[in-house]
Specification:
The protein is an alpha+beta fold. It is built from 14 helices and 10 strands. Strands 7-3-10-9-8 form a 5-stranded antiparallel sheet, with helices on both faces. It has a 3-stranded antiparallel sheet with strand order 4-5-6. α2 packs across α4, α3 crosses α4 and α6 runs parallel beside α14. Negative regulator of class I heat shock genes (grpE-dnaK-dnaJ and groELS operons). Prevents heat-shock induction of these operons.
Amino acid sequence: MADNGTALQDLNDRSREVFRRVVEGYLETGEPVGSRTLTRQLSEKISAATVRNVMQDLEFMGLLDSPHVSAGRIPTHLGLRMFVDGILEVGEVDETDRTRIEAGLARNDQDVGALLDRVGGVLSAITRGASLVLSPKHEAPIRHVEFVGLAPDRALVVLVFADGQVENRLFTPPPGQTPSSMREAANFLNAIAEGRSLGDLRSAIGAEIDRRRAELDLLAADLIEQGLAQWDDGPVHRERLIVRGRSNLIEGAVAEDLERIRILFDDLERTRDLADFIELTEQGEGVRIFIGSENKLFSLSGSSLVVSPYMNADRKVIGAVGVIGPTRLNYGRIVPIVDYTAQLVGRLLSGQPGG
């Protein structure tokens, strides 16, 4: 793959303008852009034959492609990447969009899940694409832990967090548990858990059990370890991916797009790939744009993803918001929308005033 910076420098003014006009025309209409159309738009008066020669050069560089037998050209993924990195001008979020985002998130409640559901709905409605919202891991310190026996082969671990949220998780306890061993296990955990997040507790508890095993009843130690396995269950660490507006991707789609959209929907259901989505949000601040195969999660569908992390008051990435759609997204409008929404979500979750 060519270096995008070098490719831009290699283009003269005429080639650069032809390239920009082709990409802008494609992003606006989704259709190939032909030489006759460009001849009427260019600031320099040149013939259609000259424009065709320039387009052929751009095609040779891997920036444009000619679909089917059309005389027009569309940008390749490399071309779109070069346009986004070197030519696209992104301003502030439009005042109308800003007002709609703020109005959609204005309700003052303490339910993080409800807030993030609204974020997804607002993003989807404004952009007419599908929205993605990755909810944060629960990192609040633990206030209290309790084990509750439900049946010989079923138990409940109750986690009470410092922010007031409560999580109940079912698991299969070791055989032979008694009320006293459950109390002993809970007492042990509560002695070391307070002030620690679940992640901190997971990393500390194994060594602590080994060090204090002689003080613990064997059943209580087994119960703690079984409960710990339940807390560690699943590859996504209890993040949740919220998807809104899938029908928007189907509206106006042509026949050959429908199979790509079906593949995209399949991708969105594969929560095992959430780790990839999380990783891409944690590689720095600001909006990131993934075009086609650049994002493994959506590579087969050839879609584009515009995503931005949101952070807590300590500037730690705790989740992400994004918009996914065809590669001909209106990047100039959607990038500031995603950026502003991520900043607003971070402020709301940190208890800071919006605006």
